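Example record used in the benchmark description.
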Amino acid sequence: MEKQKIYFPNLNGLRFIAAFLVIVHHTEQIKAMYSLESYWKVVPFVTLVGKLGVVLFFVLSGFLITYLLLSEEHSFRNVNIKSFYIRRILRIWPLYFLILGLSLFVLPYIPFFLFPDYTPEIIHENLAGSLFLYSVFSPNLSVALFGSIPYASHLWSIGTEEQFYLVWPVIIRYIRKFRIWVMLLIIACYWMVKRKLDFYQDSDPSDFHLAISTFWNLFNINCMAIGALFAILLYKKSPILALIQNRILFYAALILTSYLLFEGVKFSSFHYEIYSVLFGIIILNFASNPSIGITLENPVFNYLGNISYGLYMYHPIGIVLALKLLMISGFITNWILYPLALGFTVLFAGVSYKWYESYFLKFKPRFSKIISGADTKKVE
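Model output (structure tokens):
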């Protein structure tokens, strides 16, 4: 049977933008850790943009995964949960465990890559617990309980993605009615639990409540559900699309989002939900509205988007390598640091994608009835 192909334009460009926002955030944070002049906690944009870059990833994931599952259900009468899990394993696990191994057992023993105040003994203080939680894709819980591990702390978002992947095909397969309301319910329940945890944390600031609250704040299924909501509206060709697939609304959302990001605006309530809705409007129009008049479709963005998972995973190594080389040279300037850090990150991600990840990715089409993204160009 011929495989169905689905390709949304511009999503690779958005993936790269999301990764770049995280790189900016961590570059300034790492400079501060080395007691260098930094914009970390000085410029609100820098402080907020890292998590919001991850939120953009989450909304993208919710949008694309949901649309593909709905397409599979429509074309083949059902969702193959086992094949979905295998596809996600082939995409996520090889690089995830490579970075985890490097972070725990290689980089701590290379003095060049040590962070200030992070000796191997400190990193391995809770090794058994951290290793277990990371291995069962709960790094967000490990961060909440044991703190950050250099070069692995950003894996919390991969844990959140994996937890989302675990439940999402089940939700799509077995809940076929009122899906829009289900998404709204998930978003509302997440927010209510967050409010309750914040209340307990304020009234009884114990380590237990802090850990649970931290975990929940990192478990952003609400952002993924917002992305899924836009996918359902698009797939069902909802009448609401006439309002959302709108050039004026698109540019209004794009300008407003850019302003909020650059000003570092943090909302007291519904912070990530507001940004997720704005991201959803932008994503939906980039993906399905040819009248917007701009495009991110070009060879550079397409390549960087294809390796965006690697960009996200390797970027702390690229940043530290660039920063340490400049520290040795005695000449540190952002005009050199950022291009050098990004260059190293692209190099590592590109080599990894071609010579490591691609070995596993070539098996994905065997378990895919719906071919999407870069795979549409590989499968004829």
